[in-house]
Write a structure and sequence with these properties.
It contains one helix and 17 strands. The chain is mostly beta strands. The chain folds into two domains: about 100 residues, no CATH class; about 80 residues, 10 Kd Chaperonin, Protein Cpn10, Chain O, CATH 2.30.33. A seven-stranded antiparallel sheet has the order 8-9-1-4-5-10-11, with no helix packed on it. The protein is globular. The termini are far apart. The model has no long low-confidence stretch (mean pLDDT about 90).
Amino acid sequence: MKSPFYFIITPDKERRYNSTVDWGGLEFITSSSKEDFKFSNREAIVVETPLGYKGPISPGDKILVHHNVFKYYNDMKGREKSGKSFLKDNTFFVDTTQFYAYKKDGKWNSCLQYCFVKPIDVKDNHYLLKNTNEEPLMGIVKYGNESLAALGVNEGDVVGFQPESEYEFNVDGEKLYRMYTHNITMVV
């Protein structure tokens, strides 16, 4: 089965939510809320690509998706429903605006106008003196894109970014901010 326009995906580890943690062989529930977006699974496995798709993503690749893709919602009568991306069973449709990166041959690659920036721990360096654990509005480009490269911004560069542009992801155990190319304001 293929879609003319959408990628068909399934949640990574067959779970819509990442609300448990394994601690010493025991599974502990960290949240029972289905409303909290922080616990929504954001990793998916590609089952099928759209008809005629010629890009780098292929079935079996892992992608990072928007937090609403796998979430449950309550309708006006309080009944639990799946969102608009739901297809059937544990499969979902997503278009190119609903995912931000793909993992190919063990390396993450940003899609389109998205990039990922690692926050700077103030123990390492600090540019703006604030009472925080992370340097505000500063980070290191972890996964860039073609638009940034054309502007001379490369992976590993220390950059400044616009306020409120940080969309937090946990990528392979590392905290990263997904943002748009235009959110990057300077290279330090």
